[in-house]
């Protein structure tokens, strides 16, 4: 504890008493008031009264004093303890606190109520000077925040605690802030909440999970009664039929309001609430057109649930200043004249007319939508209008009701015809969301009244149309996305509150004014790009009418079903609280156990209450690991374990009755150690593991049998000497210490002989868990230099040997051979007792193999399996090992030949074939099995290899043969293949090796000079028959280039090209393969080969080019084969071949590709060639370079203006063209040709065709923002129904 913090806790009157005993108090908060519970340490004088202790704890933790209890927590259950007296003047010494010891206390709930969080607000007045938080919480360390939207001085704990306002927030599921804002507004509307409470759910008629009104009832009850800071809305969204993905879709709050009201109306049919939405939110207006010549008026009545108000008039940059101004514009009529004239039924001709809207009736709850989201036709993007628009706290709608319309008796007529009264208003901003009602006018009914009575009634209504604002739904952000929250006035105390998801706080009228929008003196939280983007989006007003304004129902006024629901939710919350209490007091730690029968390490999670004893924890672990039938309970114990180092840290002798909370060091979310359930046989005794010991796994090495025994565990101390350590091992292994050699494996392949007798284990590099090899024979080997000894060679082999499973082909062609192998050896490594008999191999004449050769496409139909070289994927693992092997050969001796196949037959297949190109000098990158002298690389040095048959895996094909191979992973792939020859039955040049990965994908290994160091134990290998690569050879994939086809890239076959071979020689070899495998009967001059980069055609290879000299070649190389229409025009490397395509704007289409061969990179030459093939006059030629991957597809609606036509350059190899290689795409056109004019219908049709065409070819059509998902509420809880209300 910081001394300065301690000093302030010392009572001043005894501060100078040096001999005052001190009492150390450790207080753990165990309540649910905060998500993160604090632990407070106080060092107090022994004379401190209990009253002062409570005050200090309250100050430290941040709770109101008197709202919590303190009980003893020294390993005793909280339920059994009596709380300390909070107001007592008794000293803590007299209360039982012990000086000089740790005194543990638990801070608990008082009388079942959670502690109250200490208010963070200062005592400043509500004059607007105090900054309040109403927007999104600013990020930690954010800059640019000023007084517009500044957070209160929230501490972390206060954010997580229940709001001091008494209101409960709503948890944001992901992007459901728009939903939370609307739900809080409905909850704070007395008329809606009361009506919802009066509706009774009938469980026999409907599933509660899918009942929207019932889930809203539950939510409102929780918002009213819960003690939590915020509650979840998942049950409500589930009743909407939404899944978890909907939580990540942000929608418009006004859209949600309309959809939710529609859903509620459907659910409330034939109930008392059937017309609730209309009674509260529905208004009426008249949509009219009046002839200015004869006065004839045509009209209809529409209903509305909200009034959409535009921020800016169409085509104007000036926004309306206020809501009142926007309302006047809404009912402002427009004149239909000129081409927009109206056909008058009375005049029987087109006449000038006035078109507009008139409000007939305003709803009780008036909803105004400020249309801040618009579409910018210049950028073709949605935008948000952040202009300032004021709105009053009280809005008089009497000025907007139409009285003149009600004076005329003709207004009583049907909806489709009018009379001679003149309308006075219209706006073209009518919302498309308005529902049409072509039936009888249900608005202000005037049929039975005289004209004077009508005027009186309407005048009376005008005087009573005063509305008060009570909800402002605010949007922060842009049209692309943002955040919603609500500012709501409580009708209970007329106080404004900010409901921002789980955060609820008090705000003032000044804070409401900050949501008007527009620029202000200082920027808000969303500064920089979205300055002042926090503004009001939806306003809800309530009619001021004392006869209709309702108050919230009191608890005693609740209907009986709501009282029962309140009680049910309280019980559920208490149950949840108790469960959380149990969870918080539960220790969760990883548990391991080596199964005594199966001998496999099992892993699980041990969850045990902190008050459970070690003995009880062992019983729980015993059941978790399901050891009832394997070992008795009294043969098990729990020990402290480090899984990472496989180290037993300590055992717990004599602590069987100690609570797990104390044993594990408290209840934590994560522990730095694990537990191991250790088992023993009934006749054994558990070993005592003391802290500070290190664990050593001792492997005994037998040089005679060349075997390494399974490990024996020994525990030692780091300060022991090597001599003492040998004595310890001698007792465990019964080997003489005098002749003992101990080798420590410090890390992989680092074998260190411990030969300094007085050196400590710590100095030798021992750590928590260690591995040593010991040998104690009296042979001459112990007198040899360690690195030359048989012990080192055996251990080196042991460290580098891996086990592989090799799948053999079902039958090798032309081979007859017999193999007899002893049964599989047991133990840690291969024993000399299990040796293969001499392989008897009889292989037919290698020439016969010619007919059996198959390409990769024959052997492996899935081309993708051989498209990536597995050795490339892990080449980083093999380079170092390869160097070590080459520089320091490790020939093994002493009879090891009996374990392995040390020689293999060399095939002379293809010997008679003249390989004129296979004479280039060898380099490190070649894929060859032979060195320069022709001697097999496998014979250059010996590497351990042992193979024996094994059972096939489940699911493998019938008749498939498997080998289990133990091999030194420093062996090269070439030598490995030679060792496999007797088992495959063909020379290594006639089979291929495929590495099998976890997903059962197979990749061919072709780098014969690389080692198996990237392989690990139990990897699988598949052997396939077929032509393998020789020195300087590379496997090449050949694709056909079809420039005018929808799919221009078509795979043909796998071929083998060699270093030093000319392009013409490779074409000659391809001819028979193309004929047999692809059905292409070509002559050598009818096709060309060219570079392939992804799908792009590149350099044309000329017949005299030589691979590796003129053309770089690599493993799994790819080339294009292009069939020519005529003679080859490309004769030299100075020429340039481009692919041209004519664009015809008058027909809105593109011609086929034509190749143009240029002698230079001159733009003038290109234009001349294009003029020749097209007939377009040279001066009218315009061209542009294609973009993207071949064939550079582009929509015909975009090509005319989107490409960079006629670049101002004289050569092709400069910016912005950079055409330096063959295969570039050039579009060209006649600049005098006019673009076809399209009707809207033609454009839409063409757009659909182009979109379909380009999507099929995988090319992007144009920029398209993330598609918005339509907001729907599914009344039956299933999203696959076609609902009429949607």
TrEMBL record:
Q: Which GO terms describe its biological process?
A: protein deubiquitination; proteolysis
**Bias-annotated ranges (Polar residues):** 117-127, 410-432, 839-849
Q: Which GO terms describe its molecular function?
A: cysteine-type deubiquitinase activity
Q: Which residues form a coiled coil?
A: 558-585
Query: InterPro entries given for it?
Result: Papain-like_cys_pep_sf, Peptidase_C19, Peptidase_C19_UCH, USP, USP47_C, USP_CS
Query: What are the USP domain coordinates in residue numbering?
Result: 168-544
Catalytic activity, reaction form = Thiol-dependent hydrolysis of ester, thioester, amide, peptide and isopeptide bonds formed by the C-terminal Gly of ubiquitin (a 76-residue protein attached to proteins as an intracellular targeting signal)
Q: Where is this region: Disordered?
A: 108-140, 405-432, 816-934
Its EC number is: 3.4.19.12
Question: What Pfam families does the database record attribute to this sequence?
Answer: Ubiquitin_USP47_N, UCH, USP47_C
For bias kind Acidic residues, which ranges apply?
A: 918-931
List, as start-end ranges, the regions of compositional bias called Low complexity. 864-880
**Mind telling me which GO cellular component terms the entry cites?**
cytosol; nucleus
Provide the alphabetized UniProt keywords: Coiled coil, Hydrolase, Protease, Thiol protease, Ubl conjugation pathway
Q: Superkingdom of this entry's organism? A: Eukaryota
Which PANTHER family does the record associate with it?
UBIQUITIN CARBOXYL-TERMINAL HYDROLASE (PTHR24006), UBIQUITIN CARBOXYL-TERMINAL HYDROLASE 47 (PTHR24006:SF702)
This protein's name: Ubiquitin carboxyl-terminal hydrolase 47
Q: Which gene encodes it?
A: USP47
């Amino acid at each position: 504890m910081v001394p300065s913090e301690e000093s302030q806790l010392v009572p001043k009157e005894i501060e100078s008493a040096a001999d005052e005993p001190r009492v150390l108090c450790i207080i753990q908060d165990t309540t649910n008031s905060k998500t993160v519970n604090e632990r407070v340490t106080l060092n107090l004088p022994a004379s401190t009264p209990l009253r002062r202790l409570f005050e200090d704890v309250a100050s430290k933790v941040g709770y109101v004093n008197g709202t919590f209890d303190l009980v003893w927590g020294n390993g005793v259950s909280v339920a059994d303890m009596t709380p300390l007296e909070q107001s007592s003047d008794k000293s803590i010494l007299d209360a039982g606190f012990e000086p000089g010891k740790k005194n543990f206390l638990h801070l608990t709930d008082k009388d079942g109520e959670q502690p109250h969080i200490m208010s963070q607000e200062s005592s400043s007045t509500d004059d607007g000077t105090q900054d309040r938080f109403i927007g999104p919480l600013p990020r930690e360390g954010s800059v640019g925040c000023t007084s517009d939207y500044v957070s209160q001085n929230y501490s972390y704990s206060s954010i997580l605690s229940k709001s001091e306002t008494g209101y409960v927030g709503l948890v944001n599921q992901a992007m459901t802030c728009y939903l939370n804002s609307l739900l809080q507004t409905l909850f704070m509307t007395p008329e809606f909440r009361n009506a919802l409470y009066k509706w009774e759910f009938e469980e026999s008629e409907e599933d509660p999970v899918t009942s929207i009104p019932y889930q809203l009832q539950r939510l409102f009850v929780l918002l009213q009664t819960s003690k939590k800071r915020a509650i979840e809305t998942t049950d409500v969204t589930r009743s909407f039929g939404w899944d978890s993905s909907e939580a990540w879709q942000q929608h418009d709050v006004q859209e949600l309001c309309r959809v939710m009201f529609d859903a509620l109306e459907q659910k409330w049919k034939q109930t008392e609430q059937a017309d609730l939405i209309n009674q509260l939110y529905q208004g009426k207006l008249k949509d009219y057109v009046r002839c200015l010549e004869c006065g004839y008026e045509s009209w209809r009545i529409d209903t509305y649930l909200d009034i959409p108000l535009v921020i800016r008039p169409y085509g104007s940059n000036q926004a309306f200043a206020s809501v009142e101004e926007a309302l006047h514009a809404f009912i402002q009529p427009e004149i239909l004249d000129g081409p927009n004239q109206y056909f008058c039924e009375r005049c029987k001709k087109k006449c000038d007319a006035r078109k507009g809207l008139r409000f007939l009736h305003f709803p009780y709850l008036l909803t105004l939508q400020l249309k801040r989201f618009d579409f910018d036709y210049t950028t073709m993007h949605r935008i948000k209008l952040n202009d300032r628009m004021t709105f009053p706290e009280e809005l008089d709608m009497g000025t907007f009701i139409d009285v003149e319309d009600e004076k005329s008796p003709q207004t009583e007529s049907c909806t489709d015809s009018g009379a001679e009264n003149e309308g006075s208003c219209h706006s073209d901003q009518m919302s498309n969301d308005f529902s049409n009602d072509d039936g009888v006018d249900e608005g202000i009914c005037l049929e039975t009244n005289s004209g004077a009575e009508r005027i009186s009634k309407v005048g009376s209504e005008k005087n009573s149309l005063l509305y008060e604002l009570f909800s402002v739904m605010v949007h922060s952000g842009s049209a692309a996305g943002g955040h919603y929250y609500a500012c709501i006035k409580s009708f209970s105390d007329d106080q404004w509150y900010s409901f921002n998801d789980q955060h609820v706080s008090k705000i003032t009228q000044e804070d409401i004014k900050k949501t008007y929008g527009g620029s202000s003196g200082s920027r808000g939280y969303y500064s920089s790009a979205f300055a002042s983007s926090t503004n009001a989006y939806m306003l809800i007003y309530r009619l001021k009418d004392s006869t209709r304004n309702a108050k919230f129902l009191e608890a005693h006024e609740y209907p009986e079903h709501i009282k029962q629901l309140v009680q049910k939710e309280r019980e559920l919350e208490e149950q949840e609280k108790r469960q959380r209490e149990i969870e918080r007091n539960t220790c969760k730690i990883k548990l391991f156990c080596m199964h005594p029968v199966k001998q496999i390490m099992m892993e699980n999670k041990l969850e045990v209450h902190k008050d459970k004893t070690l003995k009880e924890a062992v019983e729980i672990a015993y059941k978790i690991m399901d050891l009832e039938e394997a070992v008795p309970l009294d043969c098990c114990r729990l020990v402290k374990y480090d899984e990472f180092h496989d180290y037993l840290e300590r055992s717990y002798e004599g602590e069987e009755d100690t609570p797990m909370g104390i044993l594990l060091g408290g209840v934590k979310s994560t522990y730095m150690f694990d537990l191991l359930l250790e088992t023993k046989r009934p006749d054994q005794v558990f070993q005592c593991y003391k802290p500070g010991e290190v664990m050593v796994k001792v492997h005994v090495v037998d040089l005679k049998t060349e075997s390494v025994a399974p490990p024996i565990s020994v525990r030692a101390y780091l300060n022991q000497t090597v001599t003492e350590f040998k004595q310890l091992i001698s007792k465990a292994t019964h080997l003489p210490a005098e002749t003992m050699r101990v080798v420590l494996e410090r890390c992989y392949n680092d074998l260190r002989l411990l030969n300094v007798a007085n050196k400590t284990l710590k100095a030798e590099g021992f750590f928590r868990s260690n591995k040593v090899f010991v040998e104690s024979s009296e042979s001459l080997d112990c007198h040899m230099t360690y690195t030359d000894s048989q012990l080192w060679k055996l251990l080196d082999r042991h460290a580098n040997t891996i086990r592989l499973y090799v799948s053999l082909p079902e039958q090798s062609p032309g081979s007859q051979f017999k193999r007899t192998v002893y049964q599989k050896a047991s133990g840690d490594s291969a024993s000399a007792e299990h040796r293969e008999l001499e392989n008897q191999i009889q292989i037919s004449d290698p020439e016969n193999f010619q007919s059996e050769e198959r390409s990769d496409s024959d052997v492996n139909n899935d081309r993708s399996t051989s498209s990536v070289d597995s050795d490339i994927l892990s080449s980083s693992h093999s380079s170092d090992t390869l160097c070590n092997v080459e520089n320091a050969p490790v020939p093994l001796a002493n009879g090891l030949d009996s374990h392995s196949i040390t020689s293999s037959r060399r095939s002379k297949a293809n010997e008679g074939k003249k390989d004129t190109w296979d004479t280039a000098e060898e380099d490190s990158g070649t894929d060859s099995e032979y060195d320069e002298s022709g001697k097999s690389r496998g014979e250059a040095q010996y590497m351990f290899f042992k193979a024996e048959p094994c059972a096939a895996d489940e699911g493998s094909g019938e008749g498939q043969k498997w080998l289990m191979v133990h091999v030194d992973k420093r062996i090269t792939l070439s030598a490995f293949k030679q060792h496999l020859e007797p088992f495959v039955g063909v020379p290594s040049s006639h089979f291929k090796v495929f590495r099998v990965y976890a997903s059962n994908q197979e990749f061919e290994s072709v780098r014969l000079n690389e080692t198996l160091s990237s392989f690990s134990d139990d990897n699988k290998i598949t052997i396939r028959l077929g032509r393998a690569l020789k020195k300087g050879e590379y496997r090449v994939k050949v694709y056909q280039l079809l420039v005018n086809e929808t799919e221009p890239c078509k795979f043909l076959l796998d071929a083998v090209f060699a270093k030093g071979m000319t392009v013409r020689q490779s074409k000659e070899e391809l001819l028979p393969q193309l004929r047999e495998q692809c059905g292409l009967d070509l002559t050598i001059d009818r096709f060309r080969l060219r570079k392939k980069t992804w799908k792009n055609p590149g350099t044309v290879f000329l017949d005299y080019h030589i691979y590796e000299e003129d053309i770089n070649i690599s493993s799994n190389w790819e080339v294009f084969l292009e069939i020519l229409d005529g003679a080859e025009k490309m004769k030299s490397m100075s020429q340039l071949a481009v692919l041209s395509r004519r664009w015809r704007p008058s027909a809105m289409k593109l011609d086929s590709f034509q190749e143009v061969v240029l002698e230079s990179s001159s733009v003038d030459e290109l234009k001349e060639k294009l003029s020749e093939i097209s007939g377009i006059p040279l001066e009218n030629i315009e061209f542009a370079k294609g973009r993207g991957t071949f064939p550079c597809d582009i929509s015909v609606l975009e090509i005319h203006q989107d490409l960079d036509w006629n670049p101002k350059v004289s050569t092709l190899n400069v910016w912005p063209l950079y055409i330096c290689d063959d295969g570039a795409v050039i579009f060209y056109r006649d600049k005098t040709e006019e673009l076809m004019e399209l009707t809207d219908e033609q454009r839409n049709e063409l757009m659909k065709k182009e979109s379909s065409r380009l999507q099929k070819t995988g090319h992007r059509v144009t920029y398209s923002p993330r598609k918005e998902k339509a907001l729907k509420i599914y009344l039956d809880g299933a999203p696959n129904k076609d609902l009429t209300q949607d």
